[in-house]
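Researcher: We're teaching a course module on how sequence relates to structure. For the next exercise, students receive a sequence and then see the predicted structure as tokens, so they can try to spot secondary structure elements on their own. Here is the exercise chain.
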Amino acid sequence: MAKILLVEDNELNRDMLKRRLERREHEVAIAVDGAEGVEKASSEKPDIILMDLNLPILDGWEATRQIKANEDTSGIPVIALTAHAMTGDQKKAIEAGCDDYDTKPVELPRLLGKIEALLAGTAE
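Model: And here is the predicted structure for the students to work with:
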């Protein structure tokens, strides 16, 4: 079981993913914008962060940069999630500090594989 911080502004996506992760025995904390995501990365100390990239207040790229720049949260793996899979987005997410990248709609088995790989330290 992992503690996952889900940073997602879309309520339907957030609720669906939270329920699906909890059914697999994960504990899920929620943030609805990038600023709250940065704050909760420090206060919740999650094992991993699922970061939507298109967020209000502070986008996912900048939120990830801030999380990775803070020595208290820099070691937390971040998986970028985006519905806008544009050419270059994956590279941009990795450059911002994301450890992996996945597209929406989320394919849960694929996402769970990425989560497990990062938690085990075997991600590419």
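Model: If you want an answer key for the exercise: The helical segments are 11-22, 34-44, 60-69, 89-95, 108-120. The mean pLDDT is 94.
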